[in-house]
Amino acid sequence: MSTIVLVGNPNVGKSAVFGALTGTYAEISNFPGTTVEVFEGRLGDHWVIDTPGVYGLSGLNDEERVAGSVLPGADLVVNVVDSVNLARDLFLTLQLLGMGLRPVLFLNMSDELWARGMEIDAPGLSALLGLPVIQGAAVRGQGIKELTEGITSALEAGGSGSRPLGLAMRGQAPQGLTQAPSMAPDDYRALRTEADRIADRVLKGRGRSRPMAWWLGRASLNPWTGLPILAAVLWSVYYVLGDLVAQRLVDFTEKTVMEGLLVPLLAAGLYPLTGNDGLFHALLAGRYGLATMAVSYIFGLLLPLVAAFNLIMGLLEDSGYLPRVAVLSDRLLTWVGLNGRAVIPLILGLGCVTMATMTTRILGNRRERFIANFLLALTVPCSAQLGVMAAMLGPLGGEYVLAWGAGLMAVFLASGRMLERLLPGRPTPLLADLPPLRLPKTGNILSKAYRRSRWFLIEAGPLMALASLGVALADYLGWLARLEQNLGPFFEGWLRLPAGAAPAFLVGMLRRDFGAAGLYGLPLDPGQKLVAVFTMTLFVPCLASTMMVVKERGRVEGVFLWAAAMVTAVALGGMAARLVHWAGL
Amino acid sequence: MTLDQAPLGRPVLLRDFLDRRIEHQAVRLGLVEGTLVVPLERIPGGPTVLGLGNREIAVGLELARAVLVRPLVRRLVSGAERP
Asked: I want to staple A41 with a disulfide (CB 3.0 to 4.6 A). Which of A22, A84, A382, A525 is the partner?
């Protein structure tokens, strides 16, 4: 039983190779930093470890430290290389060689290189480096059989640790590995020059005419064409999510299927058990009951929205468009103390803030991670929430959606700018490789959307059931009425909302989308809807994402973010109520 | 001339990095003194996108201000702009 470690530059397809080798699912996308943790899977008797992408191994950032910490335990290293970016990637290969390792080289994305009318002389490269070299394209399954054979024979030949050089005893970190490679600029330049020289010798053919995707990629970066493209993309997302799904589809699933069909059916089925009133009725079939509220909110309202959003996100992620948005938004994000790279966690946050919190690891330093987490917790609504918002504000007309969006943007900019001024330090400048635009693969988008939606059901389903039981019980015992009585004046006075909104905000502490769903059923006038939705968007991050912040950033930051979001939301909500009143909405 | 001022579409040679903090990262991406790059696009007040071979690399404004470049006479490098 041996340990095989996959290493490579960001966005070269390590996770695709990992998935193809082990059959274990690993999320893949077309932007650097999809994998931020170490993943393990099995290939026959062997362990395969997938690592975050790194350009080098000197412990320069978290990814490098993570990848570096896994290497000493490896019996065999597989260096995944992007064939199109051979020169860039060979730098890491040479560093691995310099550490006394003898990796198996997998030239991934060969199909893209061939499509450009070029090829790599694999035997030549193998001879130059003295390493086994295999060509393939992992997302198409090409070269995986050969790679498996290559791994087997390399392991039989004694693996690729520094053992053949006699540097280490089994079970002990090899000496050459305890020390990170030299950071002296001259050594770096020497490695760089060597990598360029080798790539030059083995790359054959001259690039053919630029593919269509290349021109589109350029257009997306030019300010004159890039901003209209961005506006068109955002509008399409809004149209599909806010109009097609949030209104037409949800109207069907929520009203026709759930309220019209399934809920009466469930209530009728439960009738012999629950009767028409009493505790059981309240818990199972009442207004807040398990069979009524929980089932119809989760399956009728939230699931269609979450699934649709995941499909759209998958499309954006796999196309390689997001890093281009990073370039367009770098200036704005620098103003709030971040840099363009932060656009990726921020946009992923529109899918699920909990997952996005993990992705903030790709940011350069503590300061940026703090700002990004704060903005995520306060201003970025997740897909489930976004859906309910769209369902509530959509029918009122574009100006309400616009007012809500503008309000959020203002809070985003103001709070980000404040943190930028208050926190010591400066934003790290952007320096990033832009992946090529690609036509996304339907299979990957579908499986990613399926897995994320399933994850949503697993995570949110039981919580929703619990929340509805809790609210139903509170209602039955009269606590809800008392809560409305006690908090009501505050809601009516400050937020100018009916007292009935109090329970929705209470549930919103669990998950904002449940809170928003609670608002969905309240009789509100358009202006109140806007204020309620705006306040709920800013309200405390959901339980899961708070836990994730605590896990990633520690208890102090977690509690601080939670409290700060609560205070800010309520304060700004009250101001918004007055503004809405003044504007006569 | 610094990178943020280099005209678009004309190849330039990287001369020096005035900001040592990013030199390691730049080297790893393939940017060292003497590298031939082509500034492709620029967001006003924002990043410059460089072409290096068939890759595209985005360089933030603050960083671009710290990279010294030397424009090449086009005649000399026709053909040096390898794919």
From this structure: A22
Least CB-CB distance to A429: which of B41, B56, B60? B60
Residue pair A376/A357 in contact (Cβ under 8 Å)? The answer is yes
Q: Are A229 and A324 in contact (CB under 8 A)?
A: no
**CB-based contact A143:A110 (threshold 8 Å):** yes
Contact A429 B54 (CB under 8 A): no
Q: What percent of chain A has pLDDT over 90?
A: 37
Task: Residue B8: list chain A partners with CB under 8 A.
Answer: none
A122: CB partners within 8 A, 6+ apart? A107, A133, A134, A135, A202
User: Measured between beta carbons, which residues in chain A are less than 8 angstroms from residue B44?
Assistant: 223
Q: Which of B24, B28, B58 sits opposite A434 (nearest CB)?
A: B58
Q: What is the pTM of this model?
A: 0.82
Whether the CB-CB separation of A514 and A297 falls below 8 Å is answered with: yes
Q: Which residues of A touch B25 (CB under 8 A)?
A: 55, 60, 431
The two three-digit tokens of residue A26, written as one number? 């690993």
- Distance, CA of A107 to CA of A122 (rounded, Å): 9
**CB A378, CB A534: distance < 8 Å:** no
Chain segment A208-226, per-residue pLDDT in tens: 667 788 889 999 999 899 9
Is residue A268 pLDDT above 80, yes or no? Answer: yes
- The answer to whether B58 contacts A328, with C-beta atoms less than 8 Å apart, is no
Nearest to A433 by CA among B65, B69, B47, B67: B47
Largest CA distance in chain B: 35
Residues 6+ apart with CB under 8 A from A408: A379, A381, A534, A537, A538
